[in-house]
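[job 0412] stage=complex_fold ligand=guanosine-5'-monophosphate status=START
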Amino acid sequence: MDCIFCKIVNGDIPSYTIYEDDLVKAFLDVNPDVNGHLLIIPKKHYKDLFDIDEKTLMHIFETAKKINPILKEKLNTEGLTLVQNNGLLQEVKHFHLHLKPQYKEKQRILKPEEIYNIIKE
Ligand code: 5GP
Ligand code: ZN
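[job 0412] stage=complex_fold status=DONE, emitting structure tokens
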């Protein structure tokens, strides 16, 4: 199947991965709205919210909870906005949860590589 996120899962396309386990992978969005903009995806291909099973869905939200303290500590974030598109506004047809950190001050948007280096420091 010609799915860009499946290619990220199997390593055919590189990604700045912040967290992964047997079920999910969390990596930096290539075109961030904010610094630390991440996507959490299931490793198995599910199209959208109406396709994914509940166990995997819950694990994705648990992963968001696990990642939040890392964003707080490394990027001084002040909150986390979750977005998940289905249908018309969903560009990539492999389920993904957007994690968009919140900041007190307006931030200059850094490249994913720079954010990755800060998080991994
Ligand atoms: P959607 O509009 O489907 O909710 O969001 C898709 C997101 O995937 C967009 O924010 C886009 O920047 C991101 N994206 C698309 N292709 C790639 C890619 O190859 N690598 C990464 N890291 N993000 C991607
Ligand atoms: Zn896929």
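The mean pLDDT is 98.
[job 0412] exit 0
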